[in-house]
Write a structure and sequence with these properties.
By secondary structure, the chain is α/β, with parallel strands linked by helices. The protein has three domains: 140 residues, 3-Layer(aba) Sandwich (Rossmann fold), CATH 3.40.50; 110 residues, Nitrogenase molybdenum iron protein domain (Rossmann fold, 3-Layer(aba) Sandwich), CATH 3.40.50.1980; 143 residues, Nitrogenase molybdenum iron protein domain (Rossmann fold, 3-Layer(aba) Sandwich), CATH 3.40.50. Helices cover 44% and strands 15% of the residues. The longest helix is centred in the middle third of the chain and has 29 residues. The radius of gyration is 23 Å and the shape is globular.
């Protein structure tokens, strides 16, 4: 049943369609695979499906690029009429053999698209003989109708754990933690964010399986997942299902911290919380935090001259649109560190219904005296209508969002800071907005945009 959204006293009609899509389909999890060094996705899908995931998630989203096994690299069945009528098992087997012959990888992951699943291809029976011969290959059923790439990501991580990492009954490393956080490629800044996260966690004395990106050792690191003392879920909801599965499979507890930390206040709070959970020595943790905060506030002190001089011309109210992890993280920073006033929060990553109230409660405690309600919306038309009907006061608004918000920002006389997919006016190499160091990159981006817009 479709229900309308009420914004203040105005009612906005919902539809059954999604305009201006803000995520990939479940098959987009092939970029979760590509984010693991020397892991290669093999797509059992129709022609064009794999390319569309690349163009959306990895190209017109910060122009991140495909790297070793993304872009034009992933093998694809390119299922056509023959595979629809007679099935695609035989074609998939040929493709796997050819891929193993010509491609160098430490882990191969077969992902299914809609065609293979709708016609009933038994991908497990195709992959199983390769697994029995010792080939490092797994499969995940990621037909697009199963959900978006967030859902696909959880399916792929579980497939790798169950089919490649497998069982383990050995000793645990008391300092090792597995990190489940931002979705690779979907989050435009994931490379830099995960690198900064690994740096600060190691700074307080932990050993870190970051599992994706440059700081990951690839398949070798995934093999050590069972050796970790615990799992860290650093997001409002993504990674929770994986952590619960690991708790059952390897008897690993998990620490769920919903706020991705940006800036000294949230980052220091986060580090002390996880240090307490892990039982780390207080002296080393406090010394690392003191060192980081000294540097942080040194630079912030100099930034304050600009902020004090130009406060009258800077935006006071903001709206934020995007994935729940970044919407919560950025908003905490804007309210508590910059004193900006929230006008509207819109979450677009379609989190599970049973977790939406939990996520909404996090926004009701943004600060001691700041409580806001959120809208869970996937349709770009509705996002635009909500923003147009929001009260931004007498100053031009700043909208933290995506490329899709550029037009409405112009109509409102404001400007956009792109923080999520799609971000086609940003070139991102390894920029981070997370932690102590990432906060400065975010400050620079916000206020460079502000003073440039007024020029």
């Amino acid at each position: 049943m479709v229900t309308n959204i009420k914004i203040d006293s105005k009612e906005i009609k919902q539809t059954n369609s999604i305009n201006q899509v803000r995520f990939g389909c479940a098959l987009g999890a092939m970029y979760s695979v590509a984010a693991i060094p020397r892991a290669i996705p093999i797509a059992h899908c129709g022609p064009g499906c794999a390319d569309k995931q690349f163009m959306a998630l990895a190209f017109y989203n910060g122009f991140q690029g495909g790297g070793y096994s993304g872009g034009a690299v992933p093998p694809s069945v390119n299922a056509g009429e023959k595979e629809v009528v007679f099935g695609g098992n035989e074609r998939l087997e040929e493709l796997i053999k050819a891929s193993l012959k010509v491609m160098r990888g430490d882990l191969f992951v077969v992902l299914t698209g809609c065609i293979g699943e709708l016609v009933g291809d038994d991908v497990g029976s195709v992959v199983s003989p390769f697994q029995q011969r010792g080939v490092p290959i797994v499969y995940a059923e990621t037909g697009g109708f199963k959900g978006n790439n967030f859902a696909g990501h959880e399916l792929v991580t579980r497939a790798i754990i169950d089919q490649f990492v497998k069982d383990y009954e050995g000793k645990k490393d008391e300092l090792l933690v597995n990190v489940w956080s931002l979705l690779p490629f979907q989050n435009t800044f994931w490379r830099g964010d995960l690198a900064e996260l690994k740096r600060i966690l190691e700074g307080i004395g932990l050993k870190v399986n970051i599992l994706f990106g440059f700081g990951c050792k690839g398949a070798e690191e995934w093999k050590t997942i069972p050796k970790a003392k615990f799992n860290l879920v650093l997001s409002p909801w993504l990674g929770l299902e994986t952590a619960k599965h690991l708790a059952e499979k390897y008897n690993q507890p998990f620490f769920h911290y919903p706020i991705v930390p940006i800036g000294a206040k949230e980052t220091s709070k986060f580090l002390r919380a996880i240090a307490d959970f892990a039982g780390l020595g207080k002296e080393r943790v406090d010394e690392f935090i003191r060192k980081e905060e000294r540097e942080y506030y040194y630079y912030l002190e100099h930034f304050a001259d600009f902020y004090a001089e130009y406060w009258w011309g800077l935006p006071a109210k903001y709206a934020i649109v995007g994935d729940s992890a970044y919407v919560l993280a950025v908003s905490k920073f804007l309210v508590n560190q910059l004193g900006l006033i929230p006008a509207r929060h819109i979450i677009t990553d379609n989190p599970p219904e049973q977790l939406r109230e939990f996520i909404a409660n996090e926004f009701r405690i943004l600060a001691n005296d700041v409580s806001v309600e959120v809208n869970f919306v996937e349709d770009g038309y509705l996002v635009r209508k909500i923003l147009e009907n929001s009260d931004f006061g007498h100053k031009p608004p700043i909208i933290f969002g995506t490329t899709w918000e550029r037009d409405v920002a112009k109509r409102l006389g404001g400007y956009v800071v792109e923080i999520g997919f799609p971000a086609s006016y940003e070139v991102v190499i390894n920029r981070t907005y997370l932690g102590y160091r990432g906060a400065f990159a975010l400050l620079e981006r916000i206020y460079t945009s502000a003073i440039s817009a007024s020029a």
